[in-house]
Design goal:
Keywords: Aminopeptidase, Hydrolase, Manganese, Protease. The protein has helices at residues 29-35, 38-46, 85-88, 103-114, 138-158, 166-180, 189-195, 197-202, 245-248, 256-270, 316-329, 343-349, 361-373, 408-417, 451-461, and strands at residues 11-12, 19-24, 56-61, 64-71, 94-97, 129-131, 183-187, 211-218, 225-236, 276-286, 298-300, 306-308, 334-339, 355-358, 379-380, 398-399, 426-430, 434-435, 445-446. The chain has 468 residues and is an alpha/beta fold. Strand 5, helix 4 and strand 6 form a beta-alpha-beta unit. It is elongated, with a radius of gyration of 23 Å.
């Protein structure tokens, strides 16, 4: 099985038989009614169409369907309403966007909306096709690349843990490097035990050996170094502090941070970012066995700090601790990590809002502004210094969980901060990486939350110099 395989995109070249999609906001509806043929305008009016985002109305013509109208809600810049089109229009039909449409947003939304996880179940039907011109505009090309990066991340997250273990996740990183002309290195065995001891400890309970996958790419020889770290826990039982059955059910997605960072790396490379790039993926399985780490074990880390295991289910931060230390040793100009780290972030912000933590106000402003502009929301939470002492341990330099059952996302971020030296710009994204319910452009299942926000925010920060 090819881990990073994607189905053929539902795109087509110029087709004179393609019908037109009119995408309109409520404010634009009167203008559309004036442009339509009188019979179609009357049908649209009498149907009670309100331009609700993602709603589709098919307009009749002499020989069947003549056109379609898509509601964009109050804003026409979001890609999500277009995600309703691939399966809201008749199967295998070809469609072009009306003149003046936002073709980049339509392309992004169409590709994201057409995605279904089909490794083990055939799709119920074929999607409708979006027709693109021969001379594809640059913004449309960029939208397609971003969509493909997100789809590969979704595919990895959706794969069952039986299909995607540490070796397979590392192979996905290797495939990305080969596909994009980057250098790849895998660290395993004795080298992992010595160089990434916390990663090794997390994976010690599984017969599927842990490993660290590293990607390096030079888009600009003298460009800033951007480091991306991703939590790649391919399945999380909770370890000896076992999760409940319900809590364990979706833990195939516990490598969502790694998938998102691989997707972000693909977007940066394929779009030619003027940077040097380092990607570090900690690929492990947190399993239960006689060799698994135990509560109150004291682990060593690459940074030299010792960690008392207050809870074996707080394993993702241990993986990231070594990755952040390794990345920091390279003195990056910006260090980003992503992880499905805490349920507390979901309690605070719900499933759709990744929690952002950062030690740099400029980074916070850039990522937040980018998230708003590209409709890929994130929300900043504080690195509240008053909670740092909750991680104190009498047996080690630090505990991996807080001493109080509150502010779990903040405490986890404070733990990670201990492994980022002063002077390095750093941001941490605590993501859910999953759509609980299907919406236009966002089918149920794995989701590359924050990928486009991080890409746009990072590009807006360039050029960026070292020092926080």
């Amino acid at each position: 099985m090819t881990i990073d395989r994607l189905p053929d995109p539902p795109l087509a070249g110029p087709d004179p038989a393609a019908r037109t999609v009119h995408a309109v906001t409520q404010d634009e509806l009167p203008g559309l009614l004036e442009r339509l043929e009188p019979g179609a305008a009357a049908y649209l009016t009498e149907s009670g169409f309100t331009c609700e985002a993602g709603k589709i109305l098919l307009l009749p013509g002499p020989s069947g369907i003549s056109a379609a109208v898509l509601g964009l809600g109050s804003s026409g810049s979001a890609p999500w309403p277009y995600g309703a089109l691939p399966f809201g229009l008749p199967a295998n039909t070809s469609w072009k966007m009306a003149e003046g449409s936002d073709l980049a947003a339509a392309t992004l939304g169409w590709l994201l909306g057409a995605y279904r996880f089909t490794r083990h179940k055939a799709p119920p039907r074929s999607p409708a096709l979006l027709v693109l011109p021969d001379d594809v505009p640059e913004e449309v090309r960029r939208a397609r690349i971003l969509a493909e990066a997100m789809l590969r991340a979704r595919e990895l997250i959706n794969l069952p843990a039986a299909d995607l273990g540490p070796a397979e996740l590392s192979d996905a990183a290797r495939a990305l490097a080969e596909r994009c002309g980057a250098a790849f290195e895998e660290v395993s065995g004795e080298a992992l035990d010595q160089g990434f001891p916390a990663v090794a400890a997390v994976g010690a309970g599984s017969h599927r050996a842990p490993r660290v996958a590293l990607i390096r790419w030079e888009g600009a020889k003298d460009g800033p170094l951007i480091a991306l770290c991703g939590k790649g826990v391919c399945f999380d039982t909770g370890g000896l502090d076992l999760k409940t059955p319900d809590g364990m059910k979706r833990m195939k997605k516990d490598m969502g941070g790694a998938a998102i960072m691989l997707g972000l790396a693909e977007a940066l490379i394929r779009l030619g970012a003027p940077i040097r790039l380092l990607v570090a993926i900690g690929a492990v399985e947190n399993a239960v066995s006689s060799t698994a780490m135990r509560p109150l074990d004291v682990l060593r880390t690459r940074a030299g700090l010792t960690v008392e295991v207050g809870n074996t289910d707080a394993e993702g931060r241990l993986v990231l601790a070594d990755l952040l230390t390794f990345a920091s040793e390279q003195r990056p100009d910006l260090l980003l990590d992503a992880a499905t780290l805490t349920g507390a972030a979901r309690v605070a912000l719900g499933p759709d809002l990744p929690a952002l933590f950062t030690n740099d106000e400029g980074v916070a402003a850039a990522l937040s502004a980018a998230a708003d502009a590209c409709h890929d929301p994130i929300w900043r939470l504080p690195l509240h210094e008053g909670y740092a002492s909750w991680l104190d341990s009498s047996a080690a330099d630090i505990n991996n969980v807080g001493s109080r059952p509150m502010a779990g996302a903040i405490v986890a971020a404070l733990f990670l901060r201990r492994f980022v030296p002063r002077g390095i710009r750093w941001a941490h994204l605590d993501v859910y990486a999953w759509n609980d319910v299907a919406r236009p452009g966002r089918p149920e299942g794995g989701e590359a939350m924050g990928l486009r926000a991080m890409h746009a925010g990072l590009m807006s920060l360039l050029p960026i110099g070292a020092g926080a």
